[in-house]
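Each lists chain and fold; for instance:
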Amino acid sequence: MLGQWLAATRRHSTASLYSYKHSLVSQSLHRQRQFTNTWQLSRKRAFTNSHYAQTAERVRNIGIIAHIDAGKTTTTERMLHYAGFTRKLGDVDSGSTVMDYLPAERSRGITIQSAAITFGWRDAQVHLIDTPGHVDFTVEVERAMRVLDGAVAIIDAVAGVQAQTLTVWRQTSAYGIPCIVFVNKMDREGADWQRAVKDVEQRLGTRALVLVEPEIEKLAQGKYEPSELRYWVDAVTMERIEYDASDKTGATVRRQLLTPEDGRAYEVAARARERLVETLAELDAEIVDEFLAVDGDHVRVSTRAVRAAVRRATLSNMACPVVLGAAFRNVGVQPLLDAVIDYLPSPTERPPPRAISGSQKFSESRKISDSRKTKSPASRNALTNDDKLVAFAFKVTVDAQRGPMVFVRVYSGSLDARMTLVNGTRGGIRERASKLLQMYADSSEEIRTIRAGHIGVVLGLKHTRTGDTLLHPDHTSLDDATVVAGRERSAMHMLTEEDVREPVGLQLHGINVPPPVFMCAVEADSPKDENPLAQALASLLLEDPSLSVSFDTETGQTVLRGMGELHLEIVRDRLRALVNVTFGTMRVSFREAPSCTGSARFDYDKDIAGRP
């Protein structure tokens, strides 16, 4: 039994990159088991996908979504530390975070652009994208959700579901992405996790499966003191979770199997297990059979059966697991990581993406999958390394030394370094992937291949834009004429508007970019700054599809349009760091005009000199 528990709770990192130490705390009571995990970063980086070339089932592509200031980056920094990726905890206030690396992000204390990172947890590889919470940067969330398989929605235990929470939840729902909810900031005055859970069910429209609850149920002061945040109960495993007070980083966690002799802790866990099983019974028939097999005793339902039922409900989007914690106090993050591995899908468990041919519209779309009839959800999506490459470019950034860096998700086949790719969205133009990178926020590691189900970065693609589909030159959707024409355009280094209007071959569903609503005029300070300004604007447009630049013939001004005031302020700061430029007053892009004809009558009646 002890060996099974150790196998289920151990954390993993590659031996060449991490030194991982396990220590078992022995106790005189045979019923108590405690497990302490400590991590030590050894030499270089976390996982690359070459370590898991043959097992996409152990991959998790997840995103962190939330309203602004809910604790996304703080939670991510704790994940990286507990996984062994960082030596010390990053702090948003001091500007020492790994994920928020832009100067504007560190000075403002908010996330402006999404950042990708890869790390290992429990013998699995996690590709994580930390997304912004401000509404002005909602396109960053949109293009991240387009390629992810699961998400962690972070909610403030005091504020509950907020405006941007609803927006990002709708974005995940549009792609059918299963989610886990992390109720954060349990250490704040006025924190009420029960109200937050009710808010999730009522406003987000999903059933909440609370997996971890505080051992202290009622609070006299309305606030959890640090000592009260040490003890939690796991409703799935019927264990007590204790965070070692002597470990200020929160890395040392002890688990104790509860029995009736444990008094209050057991009673709290039993009530939490009862609520969990009752909710699952409304959603899953198999858990009802397990429940009846143990004579209706919620506690006696096996951990394996409960965990499997939670996973089925999550993958079918009928419910979402809920984990409680306080990331700033280093509490609740390890159970959250466990939930990511246990309940969010792997790439092979997600439905195939929508795809069309060059002559179709998306109303006639089909899915990328094989022709085999499948019965189990785990085999619906045929992601194999033997198929021809199909990849999706969901983000482009421009590096001063490397040039365009194209973030891709590979859906079938594999993308190798020095490989020739066909851009079906751009009329079949051919480009060569000079290098492949695994990103770790602002740093990277060169890799040889990106396999199906993985996310990586491609260098050397000068014509690829956000939303483009990249294909193998021998893909069955490409005819010989298309391949020859694409080779000729590549040889001449030409990309015309006709290429953009006439996509060829198989294409994946693109990214919906909302129209800009704020605008301001931008003008170079001198004639010598005009060319640098044009180049800087071109780079910004390449990175951010929600930006647009146009020339107003009425005023003779170059007009920059964005999603909001903060969005344009960030763009202004970036431009001023590169070129001498002057910005006009920000305005909302709208005009008023009569929309229909109408008539009215008014009788003017006034006495003049006392006479009517």
Remarks:
- The longest strand covers residues 390-399.
- The first helix runs from residue 2 to 9.
